[in-house]
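A note from the maintainers: we've had questions about how concatenated examples are separated. There is no special marker in the raw files; a new sequence line simply starts the next protein. For clarity in this README we add a label.
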Amino acid sequence: GPGPRTAPEAARHYCVTRSAARLMDVYAAALVPSSRTPLGGSPS
């Protein structure tokens, strides 16, 4: 099976992806303050 490094690597990649997505979301919100709700419709 996969080695013990698989979990940490996946966690790091997930964290980086989340951070990037959040940063882009904040950036988009800053560009369009009139539209705070994402196109997805989710408050998160």
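[label: protein 2]
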Amino acid sequence: MKYAVLAGALSLFSITAAANQASLLSYDYVEVGYTKTDIKSNDKTDPDSPMYSGYDGYVINLSKQIFESWFVTGSYSQSRVDYSSTTTFTSFAPLPDGTYTSNMTDSYYETTDMSLTRYNVGFGYIQHFSRETSVDYALKYGKSKVKTEETFVHRLESDGNVFDVSKTYYEGSETADSFEVTAQIRHLLSEQFEVNAGVGYERLHGVGAGYVRLHDAESENNLLLKAGINYAVTEKITFAASYSYTDEYADIAAAAFRYYF
């Protein structure tokens, strides 16, 4: 029995080794593209909120195979969202100088600029099962930072006369660490089309404070799902589109051009 198990293991190793040498799937590339992020604990970027407006920005991904079955990977992205609101109240009340009563208008203006910076680095192991199919396993560490800048303006006026204008500024930020373990399968449908899918767990560590928070509290392991498709424009250049979902804090969509080196 033990010889059968040993023979099976050696057979799998031989198949994997042979596929490694002949694989059509490269792990040597850099890609740059567009990314959109939705943080669910923030009403302004929650897709289920009527005030929804997700973060838009760019992402840079890098992968490099360093040994026959090992690779290193990294990612950096910056995105932002801007929004504003105006609230006006009208009433009949004495003016601040007490001279007469007129139509008084209180106006409140709010402008907010939120930026999201994310990066991660990691390494992984590759198994090539055929020239067209491979599975890779990766371990990553990263950081995410949300920075918020707000301006509140109060304006008091009557009959075109401005009696009071006040401004208040607020600035805050939150940083969270992330630890991620994933497994991904890549498969070539043809010389030009590749499909891929992945599953994993991500854990966030950081303070959830105010509406800029990345998550509600110290999180448990969060399920991470990913799917994508790549189209080879030339031998070296590929268009890559992907969608990732992490239940607790974000949905991420990306479209990028990938260059193989």
